[in-house]
Amino acid sequence: MAGTVSVLGGEIAADAARRRAETDGVERARQGESRERRLAPGLWQIDTLLGGWPEVNAVFLLEGESPCLVETGPQLDAPVVVAALARRGLGPEDLAWVVVTHVHLDHAGAVGEIAGAFPSARIVAHERGVRHLADPTRLVEAAGRVYGERLDSLYGRMTPVPPERLQAAADQEVIELGAGRRLRLIESPGHAKHHLAVLDESSGALLVGDAVGVQIPGGEALRPATPPDDFDLGRALGSLRRFAQLGPEQVVLTHYGPAGPPDQVLAESERQLHLWSEIAREAYREEASVDHLEEALRARIRPRQRALPERLAAVQLLTGWRSNAAGLWGWLERERRAGEAGSGPARGGSRA
Ligand SMILES: [Zn+2]
C-alpha cells in the first residue's frame, strides 16, 4: 500500500509541474480576477491555485480599516496571494493582520513571504503553534516525511518570521478590524492541537481551516482530515460541537469554500469522523499497523461515483488514505497506552 501511495505521489508531482508551467507567472496573475470570490460584504475568498489546480486551496481577506488575511497558502503560492491582495487595493503597508488556522504548510507555508511583502502586518497563530513560524525547521522536516518529493513541487517550504512580528493567540481572542468589525478566534483542536477557527462576527462566516474536513468541487463528499501527529477524535468532535453552538451563517473550508447549510455540514462531518474512526478501531483490533488501517479505509469508504479523477488526485494530496490512516493509528496507539496506564481514554498525545 505504501508503494501505491508513493507512485501516486510521483504522478501528482509531475502533473503539478506541468500545470504550474502552463499557468505560471503573468498568466496566473492575469487570470486573477476570477480567482477571487466575495463570500459576504468585505469577505473575499482567494484561490491560491495550489499545484496549479483551481478550487483546492483558499486564503481569505477580511476588509476593514485594519485588513486581515486568514491563511497564507503554501510558499509556492505566495505570488498569487500577493497579486490578489494588490488587486483588492492593498499596498505593502496596508495589511494589518495575518491569522493562520494552523501551521501546516498548505495553510501557513507562505507566512514568511507574506510577512515580507506586508511589513506592517502582525502574524497571529495559536499559542501552541506560533513558535514553529519563528523556527520552522522541525515543521518542514515533518512535512518532508509526509510529502516526500511533493514538498518542493507542490508546497515549497517555510521562511521564518521575525519573532517580534508574531503574536500568540488563545481561545476567544478578538481581532479588531476597525469600524466595529471583529474577528473571534475559536480554539478547535482535533485535526491539530494548535488549530483555530476564525468567526467573522459581522457576517457570521466561520472559517474552519481543516477542522471540519475537506470537500473540493468535483471531488469526494466531505471527508475528514485526520493526519499525524495530533489527530484526536474526542477533541475533533468537541470542536464541531463548539462550531454548532456559534450558529454560523456559513461554514467555510480552506479546501474548499462554503460547504453548504452549516447544521448539515457539521452533522455530516461528525458522521464521517465516527465512520472513519470506527473502521480504524476495528482494523486496529485485527492488526495494529498503519498498512492495515489504510487497507480497511480504502476497502470500506465508498468513492462518490461522480468524482473526477483529477479532483480525486487533489483530495488524496490534501487528505489521503495514508495520512488519515497514520493519524488514526497514532490516536489509537495513544488511547491504548493511556488504557494500559489505567488513566482512561487518551486526551491527546505527547508529541508536539
Ligand atoms: Zn492541516
Identify low-pLDDT runs.
1-9, 348-352
Number of strands: 13
Named CATH topology:
Metallo-beta-lactamase, Chain A
One letter per element, helices H and strands E, the order comes to: HHEEEEHEHHEHHHEEEEEHEEHHHH
Attribute tags:
globular, disordered C terminus, binds zinc ion, disordered N terminus, 352 residues, 13 strands, alpha/beta, single chain, Metallo-beta-lactamase, Chain A
Summarize the structure in short.
By secondary structure, the protein is α/β, with parallel strands linked by helices.
Question: What features would you describe in this structure?
Answer:
With about 350 residues, the protein is of the alpha/beta class. The chain has a single domain (about 1-340), classed as Ribonuclease Z/Hydroxyacylglutathione hydrolase-like (Metallo-beta-lactamase, Chain A, 4-Layer Sandwich). The protein has helices spanning about 1-25, 25-30, 80-85, 105-110, 110-115, 130-135, 135-145, 150-155, 235-245, 260-285, 290-300, 310-320, 320-340; strands spanning about 35-40, 45, 60, 70, 95-100, 120-125, 165-170, 175-180, 180-185, 195-200, 205, 250-255, 255-260. α11 crosses α13 (about 320-340). The radius of gyration is 19 Å and the shape is globular. Bound molecules: zinc ion.
Topology, pairings included?
Elements: H1 2-23, H2 25-30, E1 36-40, E2 43-47, E3 58-62, E4 68-70, H3 78-87, E5 97-99, H4 105-108, H5 111-117, E6 122-126, H6 131-134, H7 137-147, H8 150-155, E7 166-169, E8 174-178, E9 181-187, E10 196-200, E11 205-207, H9 233-246, E12 250-253, E13 257-258, H10 262-286, H11 290-300, H12 309-319, H13 321-340
Parallel strand pairs: 4-5, 5-6, 6-7, 11-12
Antiparallel strand pairs: 1-2, 2-3, 3-4, 8-9, 9-10, 10-11, 12-13
The protein binds zinc ion.
